[in-house]
Design a protein that fits this description.
Rossmann fold; 7 strands; globular
């Protein structure tokens, strides 16, 4: 008999279709990452796997730096350009289609590089870290927010769900593995923070990554897809079959390090960094 089941939508294609990305830890995790990378107003930042440009716009608007965002999916870059134009951010943000594994930039092009929930989908994670280090200036910092198991899942059911519904191979690196990737790429001053999903406040900040207008557009696109696309309806049905307690085991880690320099470059003075983030309304005391 013919297989009449809907064609499957890859997870990242689904995100591109609705114009949204989901990073574990939400806005609070992004702020942690920015703080660990000591991003300041004079910096040029690369946002790897930028999606619809949410983090890039946040940095340009609230920190005042210049941001270049790259994503492998043209649909995401189109969303990012549209949103940046609506936000009237001018030359502070730029976006282009690019593969994070082979970036179209020269050595040392950026002061800092951020990578949020992107490396999880890349098989050669050490190679990715080396490529990001290549385009970072000596003394600059690279930061990752990536999924990790905070404790071993109890059955293969959890693994199967990750592979089929999230396109993630479930043999995720542990925090110590990520530290090793950064060290092997020549980074130093490694900083690591691991979180589970128990902090409802951090997870609720997912919604605060988007403006009201962004949220309405995402809602409309999702509703339209549900009406016209059987594969999207099937995806939503399967998502409801998530194994109970998955996020008791699946968490995320924030990892940052400084690119090696012959003579270590000094960071912005702590007082300057604190002032920048306080002006943006961020709570420095939780992140210093």
């Amino acid at each position: 008999m013919p297989n009449n089941s809907p064609s499957r939508i890859p997870y990242l294609d689904l995100q591109a279709a609705i114009g949204a990305t989901r990073h574990m830890g939400g806005l609070e995790a992004t702020k942690d990452l920015v703080c660990l990378c000591r991003v300041g107003p004079a910096h040029h930042v690369l946002d790897v796997g930028c999606g619809p440009g949410t983090t890039a716009r946040l940095l340009a608007r609230e920190v005042g730096c210049r941001v270049t965002g790259v994503d492998i999916r043209p649909a995401m870059i189109a969303r990012a350009i549209e949103a940046a134009r609506s936000a009237r951010l001018g030359s502070r943000v730029a976006f282009r289609v690019a593969d994070a594994r082979s970036l179209p930039f020269g050595d040392g092009a950026f002061d800092a590089v951020l990578c949020e929930s992107v490396a999880t989908f890349v098989e050669d994670k050490p190679g990715l870290v080396r490529e990001l280090a290549r385009v970072t200036k000596p003394g600059g910092r690279i930061g990752f927010n990536e999924e990790v198991w905070v404790k071993p899942p109890p059955s293969d059911e959890y693994m199967a769900f990750m592979r089929h519904n999230m396109d993630v191979e479930p043999d995720l690196p542990a925090a110590r593995d990520w530290e090793g990737f950064l060290l092997s790429a020549g980074l130093q001053d490694i900083e690591t923070r691991v979180f589970d999903r128990a902090d409802a406040g951090r997870e609720s900040s997912q919604k605060r990554r988007y403006s009201l207008a962004d949220g309405l557009r995402i809602l409309v696109r999702s509703g339209w897809l549900y009406l016209v696309n059987p594969a999207f309806r099937e995806y939503k049905r399967l998502w409801k079959q998530m194994p109970e307690g998955l996020f008791e085991y699946l968490g995320y880690g924030i990892f940052a390090g400084r690119v090696t320099v012959p003579h270590p470059k000094k960071d912005l003075p702590v007082g300057t960094v604190r002032s920048i983030y306080r002006q943006a309304g961020w709570d420095w005391t939780e992140r210093k």
